[in-house]
Design brief:
Blueprint lengths: L1 E7 L11 H21 L6 E2 L5 H9 L4 H9 L3 E2 L14 H18 L6 E3 L9 H7 L4 E4 L12 E5 L5 E6 L14 H15 L7 E6 L10 H11 L3 E5 L2 H11 L5 E3 L19 H26 L9 H19 L4 H4 L5 H30 L4 E11 L5 E10 L8 E3 L8 E7 L2 E7 L1 H10 L4 E2 L5 E11 L2 E9 L6 H15 L6 E8 L2 E11 L3 E8 L18 E3 L3 E5 L5 E5 L5 E5 L1 E6 L24 E7 L4 E12 L13 E12 L6 E9 L4 E8 L6 E6 L2 E6 L17 E2 L3 E5 L3 E7 L4 E6 L8 E10 L28 E13 L6 H8 L3 E8 L6 E3 L1 E4 L3 E8 L6 E7 L5 E7 L6 E4 L5 E5 L7 E5 L4 E6 L1
Parallel strand pairs: 1-8, 1-9, 2-3, 4-5, 5-7, 6-10, 18-19
Antiparallel strand pairs: 6-7, 11-21, 11-40, 12-20, 13-21, 14-20, 15-19, 16-17, 17-18, 21-41, 22-23, 23-24, 24-25, 26-31, 27-28, 28-29, 29-30, 30-39, 31-38, 32-33, 32-35, 34-37, 35-36, 36-39, 37-38, 42-45, 43-44, 44-49, 45-48, 46-47, 46-49
Helix pairs in contact: 1-2, 9-10, 9-12, 10-12
This protein binds zinc ion.
């Protein structure tokens, strides 16, 4: 007896071909009707609300009076909600964001009465390999997926899906997508016909007796006539029964069948049976860049340093309440960020208005994140014991010890030329002054009476107002009958009572002196210098203090290395030279490997749409500048050595009207790269600025390899994914031809076992290993996509994807005209990526610095909030626990094998537990006598701990 489980649902893309507010009006009407059906018809059994809880918030914001009704249906199990907050794209958001999404979704769904414990992922454009492990971390042991399931390996409607760490879930494959039974006919005969056709499609794939009929689709409303149709059908069917049911019911039936199921391991990105839409990795690149920056701001800066502050006895000025409110502010920042992560939003595949709305959400996330991070760093800096008058605390949010550059504004009372940074061992850091500022707040001539008032006014040692701060010095000078008084103010500092006392005594004497007639008073900020310096061995997940002293550079033994004559730069690791065509030749001084032709820009046409790259039938590639590039060494140390390569590419303005070729009309696009080396840093940082004046094209930067590779290693979510270089062969039966472009997080690496090249990036998630023999003599190269410019949401005339996958709507802003800045870095190395991946982390999280004055404090000059070993264990989060009880530390093992790890938290704590991703306690962990926790960590395992 067949069991036809009809799951009524809707797939609610929150914003897509209409902006959010327009879709929300539809959501409100839809929910009103749905609640009415559930209230009026007990035979309308269940409705599944798309696995995401943001729709509850969106509805109740407009209809708060319907909250009780909503809660009642959820508690009764008729309306199924959760486990997600939003349905993300799994490759464009970070692993930690996937966890936060589930945490928020669970909290909301629980609050409403029940969480649907199903890993419902009906629409994301492929599945990330660690999803089974993440779902299991929330006690979810099933997934429901459609796109990406491998056609050759999986020919059943269920399979075991395994993560690289070995975790597995029962995955339901939506054979004919999540809409197979939408808009069921309203009359009995056609209804039965449709059921028969569905059975014919699904039975070859069936596991057990149950078949899954998904009664809904994108923004589809509930069908009130369904219960009557089901009753009528059941009266007629002899070999099947139709059930108005739920996903958990169907999954239970599949599980009970205990069939021998096939297994798929890791990421699912097969496009033979359903579209994967891989072009979204590079559509509207600014979205990917901002998402990465926001995720890192929250997880690497705002949260860990907030936790550090919550873990110590409070000074009266810092209350627990203030820290609690910071935690809640970060919750709001995450909410804005998560609302930008639904697949249609972060993929960039919506109408222009949607993405304009996203910019405002990124702004909100960034404003909150920066404020909380800035406050957190300042609070820690204010607790560091210092003996010298002026100091800088340098913070490092990734592993260490780390030598890297840092920029800071610091007081330079002796003038900006004479600033030096000295660490606790007396070592002087290589330093460059980048800029200076000096601000006069008041300049006035006073008589004796007014001078007395002025002294009264400054007695507390503070100057109020917007530009105010503490008075840190008085400089006095007599010139005939006039006394020149300079009052130096330092924002954020404490007043200097000694300076005030000395000045008071001298001024009292002059006030009593009949020869003195007037006082020329100037109140000004202490001169500030913007400096760039090399911080050396900054502890991992911690900080190190430098003293700002007068320049003692003559005492430094050995001058900083001078670069060779232009146009080349070098440090102890690499030599970088610019060729006449603007490309770079890099010599790895450790291995002797020479990499030639790096940083070449290659531009081709794109006749595709927001979802899919498609070269025009007759493509024109541009790989060299129109005229000779200008190359100059713009910085020659001692802290930074930089080459600037300015060039202009002449690109076809757009596609021809027939879209078969690029236009003969050309536009000039300036491309300026700044390539920097720092002493002690094994990394080549590149910043490229592009003024995009062309449409319908794809701009990539190439890094040719001096060796052959057959696979690439790219960071994924809690994973490093090894992919073959050769793309699978497509064919006429593929609904979308396979491509060589792939997703990445912070780096991609190509190596031959002996040496290799790691390319790190900030928010540039698309790469390909290309093999372009012509026309520039490039063999294999890592290609990093910078821009993909298209003018259509979707089209139906692509050679690479025949069918449209959304409405055919023009999207002129997806051409991404205007100025763009891209950041990436190179790390040629011996061995493989394991040797250098911390440089990708470091590149994504530049050190930050905070200036402090002489102060007593409870923290030493250098400290870590976390020591963790071995180096393959990398931090993902240190955050306040959702329930406010202690904090959650999360890390993952980049190694593929089991490691014996140990870690020590540099914050006070009483008890520690292993926890699941939902922050529930597992076993308690005892510390050894030195405070270390010891644990065995599987290859690619994600580990969460709770400290109280
Ligand atoms: Zn969707």
């Amino acid at each position: 007896m067949r069991k036809l489980i009809l799951v009524s649902h809707t797939h609610w893309d929150r914003e897509w071909y209409q902006p959010f507010q327009e879709f929300r009006i539809r959501l409100v009407r839809f929910m009103d009707k749905l609640l009415a059906i559930l209230e009026q018809d007990p035979d309308y059994r269940h409705f599944t609300l798309d696995g995401q809880t943001v729709v509850l918030e969106d509805y109740l914001e407009v209809r708060p009076d319907r909250e009780a009704a909503l809660r009642q249906q959820i508690r009764a199990g008729r309306l199924l909600v959760g486990p997600w907050y939003i349905l993300p794209d799994e490759f464009l958001v970070g692993g930690e964001a996937i966890i936060r999404n589930l945490l928020r979704g669970h909290r909301i769904a629980r609050d409403f009465g029940a969480v649907m414990k199903v890993g419902y992922l009906p629409d994301p454009f492929g599945q990330t390999g660690q999803m089974p492990q993440i779902l299991k971390g929330f006690g979810i042991d099933t997934a429901v997926v459609w796109r990406g399931v491998p056609a050759d390996a999986i020919r059943r409607s269920a399979f075991h899906w395994r993560s690289p760490d070995g975790s597995a879930v029962l995955a339901i494959f939506l054979v004919s997508n999540y809409c197979n039974a939408y808009r069921m006919p309203a009359a009995v005969e056609p209804f039965l016909d449709r059921l028969a056709r569905l059975r014919a499609t699904l039975e070859p794939y069936a596991v057990g007796d149950a078949l899954l009929l998904m009664n809904g689709c994108d923004h589809e409303e509930a069908q009130p006539e369904l219960p009557a149709l089901i009753a009528a059908a059941n009266a007629r069917l002899s070999d099947a029964q139709v059930v108005h049911g739920t996903l958990p019911q169907y999954i239970a039936a599949v599980r009970a069948a205990a069939d021998d199921l096939p297994t798929a391991t890791g990421e699912l990105r097969d496009s033979r049976r359903m579209q994967l839409l891989p072009g979204v990795l590079s559509t509207r690149m600014w979205i990917k860049q901002r998402n990465t920056a926001c995720e890192q701001l929250l997880t690497r800066w705002a949260e860990p340093f907030l936790v550090w502050n919550t873990s110590v006895p409070m000074t009266p000025a810092v209350t627990t309440e203030a820290l609690r409110s910071s935690q809640q502010l970060l919750g709001l920042a995450w909410k804005h960020l998560l609302q930008n992560q639904p697949h249609d939003s972060i993929c960039g595949c919506s109408v222009d208005q949607v993405h304009r709305d996203m910019a405002a959400r990124y702004d909100a996330c960034e404003q909150i994140g920066e404020a909380v991070a800035g406050e957190g760093l300042q609070m820690i800096a204010d607790r560091v014991r210092t003996t010298d008058q002026h100091n800088v605390v340098v913070f490092n949010p990734v592993s260490g010890p780390r030598t890297d550059w840092v920029e800071a504004w610091v007081p330079a009372p002796q003038g900006t030329r004479d600033v030096a940074m000295v660490d606790q061992t007396g070592r002087i850091a290589p330093l460059q002054v980048l800029g200076e500022k000096e601000k006069v707040l008041v300049s006035v001539s006073l008589d004796k009476e007014s001078m007395r008032e002025m002294m009264d006014w400054t007695r507390q040692g503070m100057v109020g107002g917007l530009d105010g701060g503490a008075i840190t010095d008085w400089l006095l000078k007599q010139e005939g009958r006039t006394i020149h008084v300079e009052i130096l103010v330092t924002p954020g500092a404490r007043p200097n009572p000694e300076a005030l006392r000395r000045a008071g005594a001298a001024l009292s004497a002059w006030l009593a002196d009949p020869q003195v007639k007037s006082f020329q008073v100037q109140i000004r900020h202490v001169p500030q210098a913007q400096v760039l310096f090399l911080a050396n061995d900054v502890p991992g997940y911690g900080y190190k203090t430098y003293t700002i002293g007068p320049d003692l550079r003559s005492n430094v033994s050995g001058n900083p290395t001078q670069g060779p004559p232009p146009p080349a730069i070098r440090n102890e690791f690499y030599r970088v030279e610019a060729a006449a065509d603007g490309a770079l030749t890099v010599t790895d001084l450790e291995t002797g490997t020479v990499y030639a032709g790096l940083n070449r820009f290659v531009d081709g046409g794109d006749a595709g749409d927001e979802y899919t790259y498609c070269p025009p039938a007759e493509d024109t590639l541009v790989g060299t500048a129109a005229t000779s590039p200008t190359v100059e060494v713009i910085e020659a140390g001692p802290a930074r050595f930089s080459l600037r390569i300015a060039q202009a590419y002449r690109l076809p303005a757009h596609l021809q009207a027939d879209r078969q070729a690029r236009s003969p009309q050309m536009v000039e696009c300036p491309i300026v790269s700044t390539v920097s080396l720092y002493p002690g840093v094994p990394r080549i940082d590149i910043r490229t600025e592009v003024e995009n004046r062309a449409g319908d094209h794809r701009l990539r930067v190439y890094f040719p390899l001096p060796f052959q590779v057959d696979h690439s290693c790219a960071e994924g979510n809690f994973d490093v994914v090894e992919r073959p270089v050769a793309a699978p062969q497509g064919g006429p039966d593929w609904v979308e031809q396979p491509v060589g472009t792939h997703p990445q997080k912070e780096f991609v690496d190509a190596h031959d076992g002996r040496v290799g090249l790691l390319v790190a990036n900030r928010g540039l998630p698309e790469y390909e290993i290309v093999d372009d023999a012509a026309p520039w003599g490039i063999g294999q190269a890592i290609a990093l996509t910078l821009l993909r410019s298209v003018g259509w949401l979707s089209r139906d005339d692509l050679a690479t994807r025949p069918r449209a996958c959304g409405p055919v709507i023009p999207t002129p802003e997806a051409q991404c005209l205007g100025r763009h800045v891209f950041a990436y870095a190179l790390a040629p190395h011996a061995g493989d990526w394991r040797a250098v991946f911390p440089q990708a982390r470091a590149f994504n999280s530049p050190l930050r610095a905070v200036a402090v004055e002489a102060q007593a404090g409870d923290l030493p000059p250098a400290a870590s909030f976390l020591e963790i070993e071995p180096a393959s264990l990398t931090l993902s989060a240190l955050k306040p626990a959702e329930d406010g009880q202690g904090s959650i530390l999360r890390f993952w093992n980049t190694a593929e094998e089991l490691v014996e790890g140990r870690l020590r938290l540099g914050l006070p704590w009483q008890r520690a537990w292993r926890a699941n991703l939902d922050e529930e306690h597992l076993e308690e962990l005892p510390a050894d006598a030195d405070g270390w926790l010891h644990l065995a960590v599987r290859g690619r395992e994600i580990v969460s701990l709770r400290f109280v």
